[in-house]
Amino acid sequence: MIYLWAFIIGGAICVFGQICFDVFKLTPAHTMTLLVVLGAIFDGVGLYDPFIEFAGAGATVPITSFGNALVHGALEELKNVGWVGIITGIFKVTSAGVSAAIIFSFLAALVVKPKG
User: Fold this and answer.
1) Which residues of 66-103 are buried (b: 16+ CB within 10 A; e: fewer)?
2) What is the distance between the alpha carbons of residues 109 and 95, in angstroms, rounded to a whole number?
3) Of 46, 51, 98, residue with least CA distance to 70
4) Neighbours of 9 (CB within 10 A)
5) Where are the beta strands (DSSP E) in the chain?
6) Where exactly are the transmembrane stretches of this chain (predicted)?
7) CA nearest 72: which of 82, 86, 57?
8) Cα gap 19→72, rounded to integer Å
9) In this structure, are residues 67 and 47 in contact, taking their beta carbons and an 8 Å threshold?
């Protein structure tokens, strides 16, 4: 039964992403960001861990799990280390390369003005 729920929940997350493309006309970048932020918010309010227990891989494989991992690591290290843990927790739980890409991309976005 766990495989069925993983399939249904993972598929529902993907359907939500597809609806964002088709109905709301969001770009892939906007949709991906929305899903990561939703995963982060759900973890921040304590809803993502029960969701993972229920859905298994259906909740851990989609991009929403990345937002969950970022917030989960930051909050865990905040409790253990203090305010510095917000940054170090991100690096501890997720890979350093992916976290660095996010941070440096954000900093570059603050400095560089895209041509359009």
Assistant:
1) bbbbbbbbbbebbeeeeeebeebbbbbbbeeeebeeee
2) 21
3) 98
4) 20
5) none
6) 6-24, 31-48, 83-112
7) 86
8) 27
9) no
Chain-centroid distance of CA 102 in Å reads: 12
Cβ contact 26:34 at 8 Å? yes
Give the integer Cα–Cα distance in Å for 102 and 30. 15
Query: Are the C-beta atoms of 71 and 43 separated by less than 8 Å?
Result: yes
Q: Tell me, what amino acid is at 42?
A: F
Q: How does pLDDT run along the chain (116 residues), one tens digit per residue?
A: 889 999 999 999 999 999 999 999 999 999 999 999 999 899 889 998 899 999 998 888 778 888 888 888 888 888 888 888 887 787 777 666 677 778 888 899 889 887 76
> Which residues have a Cβ under 8 Å from the Cβ of 58 and sit 6 or more positions away?
5, 6, 7, 8, 9, 10, 11, 13
- The residue to which tokens 């029960």 are assigned: 50
* Start-to-end C-alpha separation, the chain: 49
E strands in 22-91:
none
